[in-house]
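Practice problem 4.
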């Protein structure tokens, strides 16, 4: 079986300015082959620049890292295709050179600030704004990426979605978030069924990032808010490195490529998932 890592890879990561996305960019960059190209997207250019610097500290410039400050709440397929093509051009590579192309759809927001239950949701603009970022841009970015890299007999294509337990299980006052994650999961399952794309929905567990902080502060349901606070106090919240290391092992195993939803806690802490 051909190795998942160590190949000349084009890798796009959304939300790479901080948190899990930043860690994904940094850790994946250590595992890909020379000549690889990374494209990192988020709104904060300074966050992306510092992620790039960190990547290049480990790679002696044998990979190219392009960054672009993009607000994914304003989906634009034409712009996404230009960004992908120009990252390749700036890196001096052509599409056909890559053995593996992958997109990591990591960026998302909670949409829990209003603290609403589903029966109270009546602000159309707020709903549309939430889904423009958390669903529409997910769809448009995927299709833009797959248009730039159409099916080929020599190139593996992967789509990784950083999902959530909320895709499978409802959380009170988190209706918009859970629905977006469930829809994103299903889109990847459909994609995997329709094409030869390797697709994985990865639920990272509770991870110590800004989103987790928001969950603790702003979750309106008191039981859920208490759960987040107590998990943190009990030391049950993971580091980004913990979840990303396990994600990489799951990807290397290539056991989960048909759009499966796989959670951090379902995978044992073993080393034999590497190939
Ligand atoms: N942390 C957890 O416990 C946990 C649990 C389950 C699932 N997840 C999922 O893991 C993923 C990463 O979350 P995280 O915990 O790493 O959160 P985070 O630290 O808040 O990072 C979110 C990332 O998304 C980017 N982003 C936010 N709004 C954006 C926009 N409009 N356009 C472009 N980029 C935008 C942010 O960058 P800018 O602000 O620079 O744009 C940032 O890089 C999310 O999909 C989240 O749902 C996290």
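Answer key:
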């Amino acid at each position: 079986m051909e190795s998942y890592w160590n190949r000349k890879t084009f890798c796009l990561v959304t939300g790479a300015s901080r948190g899990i996305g930043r860690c994904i960019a940094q850790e994946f960059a250590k595992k890909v082959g020379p000549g690889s190209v990374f494209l990192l997207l988020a709104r904060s250019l300074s966050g992306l620049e510092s992620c790039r610097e960190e990547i290049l500290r480990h790679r002696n410039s044998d990979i190219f890292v392009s960054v672009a400050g993009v607000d994914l709440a304003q989906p634009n397929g034409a712009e996404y295709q230009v960004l992908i093509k120009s990252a390749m051009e700036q890196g001096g590579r052509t599409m056909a050179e890559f053995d593996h192309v992958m997109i990591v759809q990591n960026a998302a927001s909670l949409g829990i600030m209003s603290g609403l239950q589903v029966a109270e949701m009546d602000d159309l603009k707020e709903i549309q704004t939430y889904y423009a970022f958390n669903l529409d841009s997910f769809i448009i970015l995927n299709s833009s990426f797959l248009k730039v890299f159409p099916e080929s007999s020599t190139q593996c294509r992967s789509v990784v979605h950083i999902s959530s337990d909320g895709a499978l299980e409802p959380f009170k006052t988190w209706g918009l978030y859970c629905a977006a994650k469930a829809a994103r999961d299903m889109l990847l399952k459909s994609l995997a069924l329709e094409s030869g794309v390797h697709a994985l929905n990865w639920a990272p567990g509770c991870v110590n990032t800004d989103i987790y902080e928001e969950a603790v502060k702003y979750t309106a349901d008191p039981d859920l808010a208490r759960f987040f606070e107590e998990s943190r106090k009990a030391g049950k919240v993971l580091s980004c490195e913990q979840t990303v290391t396990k994600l990489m092992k799951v990807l290397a195993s290539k056991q989960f490529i048909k759009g499966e939803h796989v959670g951090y806690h379902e995978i044992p802490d073993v080393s034999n998932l590497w190939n």
